[in-house]
Design brief:
Elastase, domain 1; single chain; alpha+beta; Nuclear Transport Factor 2, Chain: A; four-stranded antiparallel beta sheet; 505 residues; 26% strand; 4 domains; six-stranded antiparallel beta sheet
């Protein structure tokens, strides 16, 4: 086998070693032999080009991977019987037995140091690695420890790699520790997460078009939704099993689930599975938002993936089940899970349940539950909306409700109701009473801003019970403001509660 001729290939130079990281842009002649034999002979023929003189004996063949169009031979570098981290040579061979790429991360022979006895033993290294984690270190488990060489700029450092696993939060860390000093050389979270893609409404076609009338035909919602109404999104945290199962959300209860082995869920409204994509994306993003407020790790609200059944009933109804810890969405009329604000309204009930189990067992508490769900959905999507729709929620789900609201929607957050409007009757409807609470929460948001409002409103749930009242809810919000912001918004909050005729007591 002949070496590559200058000018017939391209080189990506290495940063520290003076050797090429990649040689590409060529196709060798068709070669004979097994992939391993071809790779070995190709490296020997191009030893000077690759700066691998004296290094070949430090390389061990680790794997041979066959993809659809090529075979990839992978060598790992070892020195003094210890693995050199991220030091490898890979030879890539097409289906016609022609080499077309070689990658070289091997450390040159002159840079390989003498082996010294480590100052730290494995037990000391484990303790150092555990100590480097933030949060509840006691819940982390050491899975394995490996002594190895760690490349640092233009030198090799004797080190240990410690693999740690913990379940709260779910993480798996690789921590590299200097074997002589105990210094952390590198630390990163290595738990595999798969990302997919999907098409969604964000939050719904009415908001995307800025005009509900364009989506009506003979007084009914159109079946063919314009392309502009869709958004291409990344589906985070998937398990990679081809279903919409993830770290935070699962659609497992849904009948006849959509399955995409490549995790590409590019479905449109009317396609089976579109509402699953909607529920997964919007719930996952909402939970991540809750985590961004500080409810993560040991303070995480959702310890298990939140389950969603997007076709659980043919009725035009949706709900959250505290017993099953599950969201169920109806398919009557406009499918509820095709409107992200309907999804997040029901998610509001899930938030209340995980903070305060049994929430909503009195008339006022039930109304607060509905009001909070409306508020959370409206607050989350407020920046997405034209001014005309800013205080309307579920404008796609309620697109035909034009006899009730203008523009049509399921409910609004800018009603002028006060607590005097509360219907205490036996057959009182919690959604109607909830308009008082949602308007109050929206007043808070408009006064102090979303960043403050969402925090104090959610935090306030931690001190109320399932039989709470509007007045106690107001007091909880005030206490949350004192705890989180030193009471800096107390005057504004008291003014809002007074105007609405709500406590606090």
């Amino acid at each position: 086998m002949k070496a590559l001729k200058p000018g017939t290939y391209r080189v990506v130079p290495g940063r520290y070693y003076g050797s090429p990281k990649e040689v590409w842009g060529f196709r060798s002649a068709q070669l004979r032999g097994t992939p391993q034999a071809i790779a070995k002979e190709f490296i020997k023929a191009n030893m000077k080009l690759l700066a691998l003189k004296g290094v070949m004996k430090t390389l061990r063949r680790e794997r041979i991977i066959r993809s659809l169009g090529a075979t990839h031979v992978i060598y790992q570098q070892y020195h003094e019987k210890l693995r050199v981290n991220r030091a490898y040579v890979t030879v890539h061979i097409d289906r016609n037995s022609r080499v077309y790429l070689i990658k070289n991360r091997a450390v040159p022979r002159h840079m390989l140091p003498e082996l010294e006895s480590p100052a730290l033993d494995e037990e000391a290294v484990k303790k150092r690695a555990l100590k480097s984690l933030r949060g509840a270190r006691k819940k982390a488990t050491v899975l394995d420890v490996e002594k190895m060489w760690f490349p640092k700029a233009d030198s090799l450092i004797l080190a240990y790699r410690v693999r740690l696993h913990r379940v709260d939060p779910v993480e798996e860390w690789l921590v590299h520790v200097d074997a002589q000093t105990g210094r952390i050389l590198r630390s990163f979270e290595n738990l595999g997460r798969v990302k997919g893609r999907g098409l969604v409404f964000d939050p719904n076609p009415v908001i995307a078009l800025g005009d509900h009338e364009k989506l009506l035909q003979d007084g009914k919602p159109k079946r063919r939704i314009p392309k502009v109404a869709y958004s291409t999104v990344t589906l985070e945290g998937l398990k990679g099993n081809g279903y919409l199962d993830g770290q935070r959300v699962t659609t497992e209860p849904t009948r006849n689930r959509v399955h995409r082995p490549d995790n590409q869920f590019m479905l449109k409204s009317g396609d089976r599975g579109f509402e699953e994509v909607m529920a997964y994306f919007h719930l996952d993003r909402a939970i991540r938002y809750i985590e961004s407020l500080g409810y993560r790790g040991a303070r995480s609200l959702f310890k298990e993936p939140l389950a969603a059944n997007v076709n659980g009933t043919r009725k035009d109804a949706s709900w959250y089940s505290p017993g099953l810890k599950r969201l169920t969405f109806g398919t009557g009329g406009v499918k509820d899970a095709s409107d992200a604000e309907t999804i997040l309204h029901e998610f509001g009930h899930a938030i209340q349940d995980v903070i305060c189990p049994g929430f909503g067992q009195s008339a006022q508490a039930a109304a607060m539950g509905e009001g909070f769900g409306d508020y959370f959905a409206a607050s989350f999507f407020a920046s997405y909306k034209p001014e005309k729709y800013r205080t309307s929620v579920m404008t796609w789900d309620g697109i035909t409700w034009n006899e009730i609201y203008d523009p049509p929607c399921v409910r609004r957050l800018d009603e002028k109701y006060t607590f005097e409007s509360f219907d205490h009757g036996r057959w009182a409807e919690e959604h109607e009473n909830g308009l008082i609470w949602s308007a109050t929460l929206w007043d808070i948001r408009e006064t102090v801003g979303r960043a403050v409002a969402d925090r104090i409103i959610i935090e306030g749930h931690f001190q109320i019970d399932g039989f709470t009242t509007f007045a106690r809810g107001a007091r909880a919000v005030l206490d949350a403001d004192r705890n989180l912001f030193g009471g800096s918004h107390e005057g504004q909050l008291l003014e809002i509660f007074a105007w609405r005729g709500i406590g606090p007591v």
